[in-house]
Amino acid sequence: xxxxxxxxxxxxxxxxYEWCVDNGYTPHLAVKVDSRSQVPSEYVKNGEITLNVSxxxxxxxxxxxxxxxxxxxxxxxxxxxSVPVHCVYALYARETGHGMTFDVDAPKPAVxxxxxxxxxxxxxxxxxxxxxxxxxxxxxxxxxxxxxxGKPQLRRIK
Length: 158
Description:
The chain has helices at residues 9-22, 110-119, and strands spanning 27-32, 48-52, 58-63, 67-74, 77-84, 88-93, 99-101. By secondary structure, it is of the alpha+beta class. It has a single domain, classed as SH3 type barrels (Roll), CATH 2.30.30.220. The protein has a four-stranded antiparallel sheet. The longest helix has 14 residues, at 9-22.
């Protein structure tokens, strides 16, 4: 039995992160917080948090295929952060706004995953998914826009 194909999302996140760092930009992750996210709840607004993941702001950053983990200081207190890759809806350079938005993929319930495995095709879910993010602003003087729904747009990185 062949294993499921790995998503391209973690690979794109790692590449965008490297591009930001190589260009001297400050990479930021925009995250839709869920029950598996370990982030400081006092900084979560409307179920979302934006995290500065620059090398000078984080320690022991690991960007795996399932989780992004690191430690960082919030108000001077060191915290261990863990964010599921499926919760990340954007990675962008703070200075330029250039980056990429992503769909927020909800993990499949076990029953649905089993039905898909047996049938060999996707089984529709009865739950409505989260709203899709709006494109990230390209203006260096403004913060990225919050998700408002609609389809995300890919941004060309020069």
